[in-house]
Amino acid sequence: MTSGVFGNYQTPPQFLDEVFCQAGKVNPEYEALYSQFLKYSKDDYRQLNEHAKTSFFNQGITFSVYTDKAKGVERIFPFDLFPRIIQADEWAQLEKGIIQRCVALNLFIQDIYTHKHILRDKVVPADLIFSSKNYLKAMLDIKPVAGIYNHISGTDLIKHSDGKYYVLEDNIRCPSGISYVLTNRVAMKRALLETFRKFKVSTVQEYPQELLATMQSVAPQGVDAPNCVVLTPGVYNSAYFEHAYLALTMGVSLVEGRDLYVEKNFVYMKTINGPKKVDVVYRRIDDAFLDPMAFNPDSVLGVPGLMGAYREGNVSLVNAPGTGFADDKAVYTYVPDIIKYYLGEEPILNNVQTYRCEKDDDFKYVLENMQNLVVKPVDESGGYGILIGSKATKEQLAEFKQLITQNRRKYIAQPIMNLSMHATYIEGEDRFEPRHVDLRTFTLLGKDRQFVLKGGLSRVALKKGSLIVNSSQGGGSKDTWVIRDDSAV
Fold first, then answer.
1. Residue 66 and residue 171: Cα distance in Å, rounded?
2. Does the residue 92 lie in any domain?
3. Are residues 337 and 234 in the same domain?
4. Domain shared by 404 and 333, yes or no
């Protein structure tokens, strides 16, 4: 590639490039888009990129980084204007697989907190569940409205060099990132409206109303006009922008724990006009801090008595507390079996092969082959605590071997997957280069409702050669265009 901002573009031969064939030709689905971008000189594109960054800055689209060097530093979320395209037929298959997975995981959570059939049938080891720090005894025999626990799921997918999608992990506690999907689309339209209009791109802007409808569908019995709120830990949380954005776009109140109180097992919001009953809480607070009377007594973020009101069926919590054991990276290895057990179906989407260090054979294999594996803690998120063996020093490998040996339950390992690459604008170089991408999809389950947003957060590993796409680890994002098949309507 020697044209304009795509000058000297080369993809390493072992990886699948979604935009270019190995012969250097543009893949058919990107030809029209590529032609549009070729019209820009380097100076033109640099200005467009700055325009998009200004749009993000003006919207307050930031995230916080928590590392040893940067504690709570606010940064603008990096956004690349060259979108990722997914064709309608490819998306339809993904959507079926994602819904299948989310429905099965919901049945799994329900079973674990009630009858425990899957444990008695020895499909999943009981000690795997009960040793998870995210399993909550307080949830035993609580039956949420419509039996829905994971109302909101973020399913992380990768496209491998074989051209197939694989599920990398499930996120069913408080999955984040949807605000970036919505604001990416706004920034894209502001910067490249004429280009956008030339493609049949599925909308993403209906998500806030779909989320609100999902929340309303699981309101307590007998509540006709539910009062819904978004519960945030506050302005210092890394995802506070998202909490505020969703509350604003849904038209509901954004509250902190101090704004709510419980009286006679009902939840009320303090307002200038007096108390107002709350029926559904979309909580963005971790389980441990949700209710100091039920969990961490030192928490000042939660609402005393909230779990009591929940147990009595007087308020609905989205997502339900205690879902975290089901997105544990060790439980992930059993999801294909979970799908077969509850649905009697073969999994539509494949897992990545995973080694559980708790198992003796897997533990031995991981220690002997760590340089060829990605090692992950089972209960962390945001890309923290991960070791990529091929990038690690001898000292880091030795340190991780010691960490795993001290707490085998805490770690799993996976082969270093060949994540697909995508043309991405690299600031400073003023040109496009291939970078690894994944995709976080967003699914809503409610009473008689299922919804998968047609699009998602395509996350980009901006550091050359890096496989870690998380924003907290230096990643960025792209707008994801799911092309409509109008002939199917």
1. 20
2. no
3. yes
4. no
Mean pLDDT value of segment 205-216: 98
Q: Is the pLDDT of residue 471 over 80?
A: no
The counts of H helices and E strands in the chain are 12, 22
Q: Which residue stretches of 312-356 are H helix?
A: 335-343
Shared-domain flag, residues 253 and 377: no
Please state the rounded mean pLDDT for residues 89-93.
97
Phi, psi at residue 291, to the nearest 5°? -150, 110
| Other C-beta atoms lying within 10 Å of the C-beta of residue 286 | 18
- pLDDT over threshold 90, residue 238: no
pTM reported for the whole predicted model: 0.92
- Mean per-residue pLDDT over the chain, rounded: 91
CA 479 to mean position of chain CA atoms: 15
Q: Is 319 in the same domain as 377?
A: no
Two structure tokens written together for 167: 């599920």
Q: Which two tokens stand for residue 130?
A: 């009960």
Give the tokens for residue 238: 């890394």
Would 220 be classed as within a structural domain? yes
Supply 73's token pair.
């530093």
- Sheet architecture: strand order including 373-377: 355-356, 411-415, 373-377, 387-388
Residue 12 has pLDDT above 60, yes or no: yes
Tell me, yes or no, whether 397 and 291 share the same domain: no
The CB density around residue 192, as the number of other CB atoms within 10 Å, is: 22
The lowest-confidence range among 8-17, 83-92, 146-155, 200-209 is 8-17
Specify the pLDDT at position 53.
Answer: 82
**pLDDT at residue 1 greater than cutoff 50:** no
The domain that holds 392 is classified in CATH as 3.30.1490.270
Mean pLDDT of 412-439: 91
Hey, what amino acid is at 267? V
* Residue finishing a domain among 293, 323, 343: 343
Do residues 145 and 311 touch, judged by C-beta distance below 8 A?
no
Which pair of structure tokens corresponds to residue 232? 């945030």
Looking at the fold, whether 320 and 361 belong to one and the same domain comes out as no
Residue 398 lies in a domain: yes
Residue 394 lies in a domain: yes
Domain containing 387 equals 353-415
Give the dihedral sign, CA 197/202/204/210.
Answer: positive
Statement: residue 453 has pLDDT above 70: yes
Residues 313 and 376 both lie in one domain: no
Out of 343, 371, 387, pick the residue that ends a domain.
Answer: 343
Whether residues 391 and 319 share a domain: the answer is: no
b (16+ CB within 10 A) / e for 251-273: ebbbbbbebbbbeeebbbbeeee
Query: Each residue of 261-284: pLDDT tens digit?
Result: 999 999 999 999 999 999 999 999
Using 50, 70 and 90 to split pLDDT, how confident is the model at 472? low
Q: Nearest Cα to 175, choosing from 458, 471, 442, 480?
A: 442
CA distance 257 to 300: 7
| 220 vs 475, residue with greater confidence | 220
